[in-house]
Amino acid sequence: MNKNLFQKLNDYCGKSLKDAADSEIYSALLKLIHEKSAEQTKEVTGRKLYYISAEFLIGKLLSNNLINLGLYDDVREILKEAGKSLADIEEQEPEPSLGNGGLGRLAACFLDSLATLDLPGDGVGLRYHCGLFHQNFKNNVQNETPDFWLTDQCAAQATDTVFPVTLAGNTYQARLYKLPVTGYEGRTNTLNLFDLDTIDESIIGEGISFDKKDIARNLTLFLYPDDSDENGRLLRIYQQYLMVSAGAQLILSECEARGCDYHDLADYAAIQINDTHPSMVIPELIRLLGEKGISFDEAVQIVTDTCAYTNHTILAEALEKWPRNYLEQVVPQLIPVIEKLDTLAKTRTDDENLAIIDHNQVIHMAHMDIHFSHSTNGVAALHTKILKESELSGFYHLYPQKFNNKTNGITFRRWLLKCNPALTEEIESLIGNDFKKDASGLEKLLDYKDNKKVLDRLAQIKKENKTALAKWLEQKQGLHLNTEAMFSIQSKRLHEYKRQQLNLLFLIHEYLEIKAGHVPAVPLVSIFGAKAAPAYVIAKDIIHALLTLSDVFKNDPQVSPWLQLAFVENYNVSAAEKMIPACDLSEQISLASKEASGTGNMKFMLNGALTLGTMDGANVEICEAVGNENIYIFGQSSNQVIHRYAAGDYCSRDWYEADPNLHRAIDFLTGDEMMKYGNQENLLRLQNELIGKDWFQTLPDFNAYVVRKQQAMNDYAHNREDWTRRTLINIAKAGFFSSDRTIEEYNNDIWHLGK
Predict the structure, then answer these.
(1) What is the span of the domain harbouring residue 29?
(2) What confidence category does residue 154 fall into, taking pLDDT thresholds of 50, 70 and 90?
(3) What is the pTM of this model?
């Protein structure tokens, strides 16, 4: 036992660890981490990255920080000696509500990798008080309540630094909060979060309702406030400008303190615009540089050399555009700058489709990003190809040198070491621990793909992880899962393009087959984790249908031994850390061309799951890495999908009428079995959506999905050793999908950071 560390923790507690409460030990560990992470802080020379993002889904940080600081094993041993459990101490930590989906989780992984690779790079975002929302289920319906997570022991500490931000003619004081980001054997960087001292959580009414006009009190209450009305949409702009204006002032002040005279800003700062939410940093920086006496033309060049833009999806909601009058209301000071940028852009091309301000007086944020940054990247090879050839082809022909691909990645420290210690230990025993720093080292596992002893141990670890997940879900939600079944997991934001509804139709199909006397090759437990945006009606209807179907399964003695459906309440990083190691079959079934990358698929393969997916996003590169025989691919290609959209010839009703299996599955949604537990309005609306619209082409992929999923179930049932061999190959090939690799590519090709 590390006696010095033992004594330090006792001192921080002010008493013996044996006598300390879990909350006191948690406080002591926070102090320890603060002390040790401060020792890894370094002065910056050369370029520093500022990664601006609306989301940072960082998850609980205690154990992750202990791992990165090399303290985890010692602390766990010390606590065990004192009769305490590190897992229990972790429960004292609130889940930070600073993100929701893949965008935020990627940003968190990137910060971890930057620090691990010893690169100077900080995050810039907002300190949301309630995140998106806390999800709970009642009467098979998603309910939203505030996710209050901020405590006196929050890792993000207030500073004395404030920046004035003018919104709609009123000036607010944006306070800076700093959260240390520790790298694995690297340095400590910072996540900079901005907030207002005037925020008042008590204004939240029923559910997550609040006065959207009371900006001083509501501005940072929620991530992505409901934008189904004009006040909600305006609030989005208020939030975005607070983030970029305070962020821009922070960047300029830090660079000035390091000797920058503003003319050479690009030598001191690299700014990455993570999707279009931070786009206003471009005109804001130009405006601020103008206040410093720099001419418009020079300011434009400085900002272009400093800023780079990442596109994360081709979906319209991510390619933000705002009516001009919205920005005139909220940020009138930016309008003259944006007008001049639009005029300048129009001197570069005659293509009206590339304008920043279109003929309808709508401002296109992505257009501004591409015109006035030096790099535009997609996040998977297929996604970047689609950007170049389709969605942003006009820009690509204008600026071919700006476009590049940076396939997303994940941080292995959290998604293997932290959430799957048994698998980590087994891997270490086989190939050593170099893979923790260089994930490509996982390839060495291929030497063991025919080693029965190793395969048996991997199978045993998977079984133990499934048991642990089942126990957790029983404690959390009273669910009783069959751990001998195949575990299929679809955990991601609830959106029609991600097609949880396709999984739903398959499960209905399997139910009807069992009722007809055709049992599957193996029992199946289908696990979902997802939140639907409060205003996204159809997404909430899909959740309702899945929860209702779960009741149907549970109450049917003929079906329940074969099919179970579990929907994890309030899915977050902590839940993911329990679900991912337990997964047998990873559901990555988005409509081809719509999922830019995805990173859940990478986490699942790293933890020994096989992928069932379309040739979409990073699934393409996973397939190339592991080979067709070690993945289950189905469905239309991206070219077929894009052609269907272009031709406008898709009619979902025709597919419904032509296919008896589809017809009966969709009809089942409003049949007697579902109506016994569900709500007719929700189920009928979903049914009508599938028959009358089906914008994300669920029905054409249905039969192919059924065939491939049943094949996976058969393979799992009849040759478990071969299944495990294929999972080992997936683990071994997961190294490419490290965020360390992604960040190295960003740095080499775009950022060129200092030390």
Answers:
(1) 1-39+61-92
(2) confident
(3) 0.97
